[in-house]
Design brief:
single chain, mainly alpha, two-stranded antiparallel sheet, 2 strands, 1% strand
């Protein structure tokens, strides 16, 4: 049997995880700004972009829920390779679609493997990264969101302009399959964890701390997905922002996200998670207020860049806090449940907001400001929830230390 990797033995795996995360997020993210291209070239209704991304998120959620009890029973490397091949082969097949229905079907099938893939990937990172380094290293892997905005989205938009909407699906599918090949050679073997069973999954779900964490992440993603799928359409048709500059806008937002997550990861490793969550949440609520709910006459570049920076930092810091909840043999299951609830929340928000918004004759969306107010409410509610999770983790840690405390005073002194 292969020797399990130690927490410091596989730095290449962390870089691969960043690449895979960037590709997987970028594939979902790119269909949102490409929605205008689908409207023009495939005859898609403007508000249907929410259905497209929401359906893929729902597929990822259901597959993650079905796979959760089983993921910790397999070698993480083997599971990762299978999921990578299936995810990106189906993504490449999207380029063969002739209409919106075929595109939606293939994109949703690809999304079915996104949930378990993300769960196995992040569980592998928790196995490999020492606890005292997780703030920085998990923030590094989470930079896939920012890199997707900086690289994947602008690249997809440019390819679509030059070679048609199919070209981004072909390119990212090929890169994903190459990442699978690289993982075969460079990713360490991570055998199944002892103790992984349906009983351990039920115990995890029975934990009030786990239930609170999943609820908080659900609220976060619901608020986030009320706005994100419609940004490109809203910017172009409501604000008359030029299509040729959408890539530059996402580049600025992604770059700001990259920097903000690096900074928040450092402060979380210093034990300042509560301050980071509170600051980023309040700043995000303020930017959403002045940018979309009760908009001021500020530059869209500034508003969108700040929105992306604080949103990414808030989400990344919350994920890092939640990663302390599961035991090692529960990590893949927890990440899968996390993926399930966030994807369900995303799909409900995306589809619900698509139903709520009304397209005018010129393609502009009516009701976007109402969604922004709902987003602000979710941001503030989720912030309070993360602070409660931090309190629960502190109490659990204190209780564990008390239970493990030696009885003799001499032993106590030596353990300090």
């Amino acid at each position: 049997m292969p020797k399990p990797a130690t927490p410091t033995s596989a730095p290449a795996a962390i870089h691969l995880a960043l690449l895979i995360n960037t590709l997987s997020i970028g594939c979902l993210m790119m269909v949102m700004p490409l929605a205008a291209d689908f409207v023009r070239q495939l005859g898609m209704q403007a508000e249907f972009s929410g259905y497209l991304s929401g359906s893929a998120s729902l597929a990822a959620a259901l597959s993650g829920l079905a796979a959760a009890p089983w993921l910790d029973r397999f070698n993480r490397k083997h599971a990762l390779l299978v999921l990578l091949v299936l995810r990106f082969a189906l993504l490449m097949a999207c380029a063969l679609a002739d209409n919106v229905a075929q595109l939606t079907l293939l994109f949703v099938l690809s999304g079915c493997f996104a949930g378990p893939l993300g769960a196995v990937l992040m569980a592998s990172m928790l196995d490999l990264i020492p606890a005292e380094q997780r703030g920085r290293k998990l923030a590094y892997v989470a930079m896939g969101f920012s890199l997707a905005a900086i690289i994947a989205v602008p690249l997809a938009l440019e390819l679509a302009i030059r070679f048609g909407w199919q070209s981004p699906f072909v390119l990212f599918g090929c890169i994903g399959l190459l990442a699978a090949a690289a993982s075969f050679w460079l990713f360490p073997s991570l055998p199944a964890q002892n103790g992984g069973s349906k009983g351990s999954v039920r115990k995890l779900l029975g934990s009030r701390l786990c239930q609170l964490a999943l609820l908080v992440l659900c609220i976060q993603m619901f608020g986030h997905s009320l706005l994100i799928p419609h940004f490109s359409t809203f910017f172009q048709f409501n604000l008359e922002f030029p299509r040729a500059s959408i890539g530059t806008l996402f580049f600025c937002g992604g770059l700001a996200s990259l920097l903000s997550m690096r900074v928040t990861g450092i402060y979380i490793d210093k034990g300042q998670a509560a301050g980071v969550v509170l600051l980023t949440s309040l700043a995000l609520a303020a930017i959403t207020l002045i940018g979309f709910a009760a908009p001021l006459d500020w530059s869209l570049y500034l508003i969108f860049t700040l929105f992306m920076a604080f949103s990414s930092a808030r989400t990344s810091s919350s994920m890092i806090v939640m990663s302390a909840i599961p035991a090692p043999h529960q990590r893949a299951a927890f990440m899968s449940f996390q993926s399930t609830v966030t994807n369900i929340a995303s799909s409900i928000a995306s589809i619900g907001s698509a139903r709520y918004l009304i397209s005018a004759a010129d393609g502009s969306l009516q009701g976007f400001d109402h969604l922004a107010w709902a987003n602000i409410s979710c941001v503030l509610l989720a912030c309070a929830g993360v602070l409660l999770v931090l309190q629960g983790l502190a109490k659990r840690h204190k209780s564990t230390r008390h239970n493990n405390e030696p009885c003799s005073g001499q032993a106590k002194q030596g353990s300090q």
